[in-house]
């Protein structure tokens, strides 16, 4: 039996988001992206930009404000910006020479993630 390398169950969810990072010169860059799948510990984003992000670069990831209330989303992605690290790149596209996507590891404390999800409270006005 082959052990799964995944730390958490992935859900195929396509939602718009934004990635922000600093390039090698210290210039802040951003890109609009679409998620391909999400889990409690990571997200894979589709990449259509002409630039690349180096592996292990710290980035911030956030979903667009109007889609954060989706119930199937992990708690960290509902709260806004999440510090993440680029840990995997997708296949390189021949047309652009850039990856078709990136795997981001969400830098959230597992104990806090479970605790916050358990204490989620709904409020109505």
Can you put this structure into words, describing what you see?
The chain is 10% helix and 34% strand. By secondary structure, it is mainly β. It has a six-stranded antiparallel beta barrel. A hairpin with a 5-residue loop joins strand 1 and strand 2. The longest helix has 9 residues. The chain is globular. The chain starts with 15 loop residues before the first strand and ends in a 7-residue tail after the last helix.
Counting DSSP H or I runs of 4 or more residues, the number of helices is: 2
- pLDDT average, as an integer? 85
- Give the assembly state of these chains: single chain
Distance between the termini: 51 Å
SSE pattern, N- to C-terminal: EEEEHEEH
Uncertain spans, ≥5 residues at pLDDT below 50? none
Gyration radius, rounded: 15 Å
